[in-house]
């Protein structure tokens, strides 16, 4: 009853995952494998292709570098997806989407995952929030893409946006689509999954994130239902700090000075700032100062020729 959609470049990773699924799912299933060893797909087109090729009423999009420790997780996912007005279910998420792009890890209140590292350079770490949480699920807005589960009928109303490229931001975009359509997304707390990669928020990650936040700007910020006034104020503070954090991320990832000025100016105009005009006027100075502090002089000279 579950179609498991996996986009993978590596045969060994896919085979290990397939064996693990067979040993632990305990329900009728199929695996729709999108072989991307020749880089024919973005993650957006791969997942849409997977939906088109699948046959069961419940869909699970899974990274190929995971390991299920739970038994009978298939029936548990089906149970979660039978809740009223359910959208997408996953294992790590956030309660809001601000107006300034930020990694999904920022202010992450809902997590149920084992984060590991196949290289052995970093210790495995069980991440579980809220501490002592006893319920089976918790409502959120965003979910991390390591595991995304939904009913097939939801995909009649939303889809992975193939106007976006690469392998980043698909989880942000599809979860915002679900929320805007009026559905509620959840983090599941009765399934134990281990994830073996740490992620790579490189320049392409932030480019996609910026495009997604621009795409949905008229709906942002997105906040959980019945959020308090204090929560709204807290998000506004996060947005202001996020502007400086985003500037730093773009500098460290080699964005040109003019591009950073354009991006930060755009998002500065989306949020509530007391001295907005002054903030925008000082962006160039901030960028050049940060580049000077973070990069060798010869790189700074090279970048001056590019802007």
Short description:
39% of the residues lie in helices and 21% in strands. By secondary structure, it is α/β, with parallel strands linked by helices.
Could you characterize the architecture of this molecule?
- The protein is an alpha/beta fold.
- The N and C termini lie far apart (54 Å).
- Strands 2-1-3-12-5-13-10 form a seven-stranded mixed beta sheet, with helices on both faces. Strands 4, 6, 8, 9, 11 and 14 form a six-stranded mixed beta sheet that branches.
- The protein has two domains: 212 residues, Spore Coat Polysaccharide Biosynthesis Protein SpsA, Chain A (Alpha-Beta Complex); 79 residues, no CATH class.
CATH topology type of the largest domain: Spore Coat Polysaccharide Biosynthesis Protein SpsA, Chain A
Helix content: 25-40%
Overall tally of structural domains: 2
Largest sheet at a glance? 7 strands, mixed
- Class by helix and strand content? alpha/beta
Count up the helices.
10
Radius of gyration of CA atoms, rounded to a whole number: 20 Å
Estimate what percentage of residues fall within beta strands.
15-25%
Flag low-confidence runs: 300-307
CATH architecture of the largest domain: Alpha-Beta Complex
Described by its quaternary structure, the protein is single chain
- Mean pLDDT score: 91
* Broad CATH class of the largest domain: Alpha Beta
């Amino acid at each position: 009853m579950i179609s498991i959609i996996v986009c993978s470049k590596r045969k060994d990773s896919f085979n290990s995952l397939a064996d693990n699924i067979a040993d632990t799912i305990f329900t009728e299933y199929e695996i729709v494998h999108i072989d991307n060893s020749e880089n024919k797909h973005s993650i957006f087109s791969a997942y849409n292709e997977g939906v088109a090729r699948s046959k069961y009423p419940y869909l699970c999009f899974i990274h190929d570098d995971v390991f299920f420790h739970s038994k009978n997780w298939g029936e548990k996912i089906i149970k979660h997806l039978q809740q009223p007005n359910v959208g997408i279910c996953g294992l790590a998420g956030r309660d809001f989407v601000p107006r300034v792009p930020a990694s999904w890890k920022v202010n992450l209140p809902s997590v149920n995952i084992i984060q590991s590292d196949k290289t052995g350079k970093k210790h495995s770490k069980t991440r579980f929030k809220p501490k002592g949480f006893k319920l089976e699920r918790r409502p959120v807005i965003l979910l991390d893409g390591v595991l995304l589960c939904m009913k097939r009928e939801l995909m009649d109303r939303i889809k992975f946006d193939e106007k976006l490229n690469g392998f980043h931001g698909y989880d942000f975009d599809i979860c915002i689509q679900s929320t805007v359509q009026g559905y509620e997304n959840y983090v599941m707390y009765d399934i134990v999954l281990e994830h073996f990669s740490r992620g790579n928020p490189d320049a392409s990650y932030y480019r996609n994130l910026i495009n997604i936040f621009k795409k949905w700007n008229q709906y942002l910020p997105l906040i959980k239902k019945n959020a308090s006034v204090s929560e709204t104020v807290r998000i506004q503070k996060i947005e202001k700090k996020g502007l400086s954090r985003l500037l730093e991320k773009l500098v460290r990832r080699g964005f040109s000075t003019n591009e950073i000025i354009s991006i930060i100016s755009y998002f500065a105009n989306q949020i509530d700032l007391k001295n907005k005009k002054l903030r925008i006027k000082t962006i160039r100075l901030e960028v050049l100062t940060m580049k000077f502090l973070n990069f060798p002089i010869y790189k700074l000279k090279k970048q001056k020729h590019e802007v």
